[in-house]
Design brief:
The complex is a heterodimer of chains A (266) and B (127). With 266 residues, chain A is mainly α. Chain A has helices at residues 21-30, 45-70, 76-102, 115-118, 125-154, 157-184, 189-205, 240-245, 250-262, and strands spanning 220-225, 228-233. In chain B, strands 1-2-3-4 form a four-stranded antiparallel β-sheet. Classes of the chains: A mainly alpha (266), B alpha+beta (127). The interface between A and B is large, with 44 and 35 residues.
Chain lengths: 266, 127
């Protein structure tokens, strides 16, 4: 069975612009922007950040569905968790489509990249949940916690509550990932090591080259949305509390921070 | 854009941001560029292309038989900050599909920065 399907097999509406990551980075760099990700000081920050998340929710939905399909011999409870995740992610995609409209955007206003899908490419279900549920969904905890604080600064309850609902699910997804990574690798430390290495490779991709730190150490910049101006973290912070709730250990969180610091970007 | 209902009839919170409109000169430049390619007029097309995209332009020109197409269908648009991507279909036999990026240069002129022939491919994600 073909388990690692190519990104271009994902169906998308014909009117969407799909881009390989290198072209996306070029388009940003040519305009004097940081290549990898929209940053808080950009005019479009909120729109493009939410757009990236929305596309991520679609790809996460597809990834969980694919995991369910790819491993028919996995324990029934594993399959149930993956099915539940598909349902959660589809609801998140809808929530973010509505949030996009709320901030004056729409799904498809920006190109969709393929980098998240590349993080799902593992043959082993233990590695797949380590990468997707712990790596990507762990990152989602960081990004969503930051969006919630941003909404609180703006006094915007719509964004605050909508993202908080989604974050609650993501925390559950990380917990599912931790549970299955350990359960599927019981008695096989080498397999566990490989799954963790796959997750580490994904964490490395998302250091964003800009010094990720904890909330309390973050530098701030001014951000404008409509006629309001408020303060926001300069880069994506690490949501220690949300990650602890999600089942990451203190040691794992510290390892994450050290990993970001020793990355080539520093 | 997804159909999320008629907001005018909705009592809930209204949008807090405005949609970014497409600059009118963007589509005019795109029309001129594609028409030049359809005529096989490389000089004119090159004049609207940034040097970094000459190779992409050559590839596009090779895919579009001169004097063979007469209709331009814009089927997609997206932007990255102030640069716009347009996805285009030239119906005919064979149909040609491509997407390209336009950005303004220092003189304020819109030029093509890159192009990607999508004919016969599932998507621009294909390698």
């Amino acid at each position: 069975m073909e388990r690692m399907i190519a990104v271009d097999k994902l169906a998308r509406p014909e009117d969407h612009i799909l881009l390989r990551s290198d072209r996306l980075r070029n388009a940003r760099a040519e305009q004097g922007l940081t290549p990898n990700s929209p940053m808080p000081y950009e005019d479009d920050f909120l729109k493009s950040r939410m757009h990236g998340i929305c596309a991520g929710e679609f790809q996460a939905m597809e990834a969980a569905g694919r995991t369910l399909y790819d491993f028919p011999d996995a324990p029934w409870e594993f399959q149930l968790d993956m099915a539940r995740q598909v349902w959660d992610e589809s609801r998140h995609a809808e929530i973010y489509m509505k949030l996009l409209e709320y901030v004056g955007s729409y799904y498809g206003e920006f190109p969709e990249g393929e980098v998240l899908w590349s993080c799902t490419q593992a043959e082993d279900p233990a590695a797949r949940v380590a990468g997707i549920n712990r790596g990507l969904e762990g990152l989602a905890c960081d990004v969503f916690e930051q969006l919630i604080r941003l909404a609180q600064n703006m006094g915007d309850e719509v964004i605050e509550r909508a993202v908080d609902y989604v974050l609650a699910d993501e925390i559950t997804h990380v917990r599912m990932g931790s549970k299955w990574m350990r359960k599927l690798t019981e008695g096989d430390p080498e397999r566990l090591k490989r799954a963790q290495a796959f997750q580490d490779s994904i964490d490395d991709i998302f250091n964003f080259g800009n010094g990720r730190t904890f909330v309390e150490n973050a530098e701030h910049v001014k951000q404008r949305v409509g006629d309001k101006e408020f303060e926001i973290d300069r880069s994506i912070t690490i949501a220690r509390e949300a990650r602890l709730l999600a089942g990451f250990t203190e040691e794992e969180i510290d390892r994450l921070v050290k990993g970001f610091r020793k990355s080539a970007a520093y | 854009m997804a159909d999320l209902g008629f907001r005018e009839n909705v009592m809930g919170p209204q949008p807090i941001g405005k949609f970014v409109e497409e600059p009118p000169e963007l589509r005019q430049t795109a029309d001129r560029l594609i028409e030049a390619l359809m005529r096989g007029d490389m000089e004119a097309a090159k004049a609207m292309t940034d040097p970094q995209a000459y190779e992409d332009l050559q590839a596009l020109a090779a895919a579009i038989a001169p004097e063979h197409y007469d209709t331009i269908e814009y089927i997609g648009r997206a932007r990255v900050a102030k640069h716009f991507f347009l996805k285009v279909l030239l119906p005919g036999t064979p149909p040609v599909k491509f997407q390209f990026r336009l950005g303004q240069n220092a003189a304020g002129e819109w030029t093509m920065r890159e192009a990607n022939d999508l004919t016969g491919r599932r998507s621009a994600w294909s390698r």
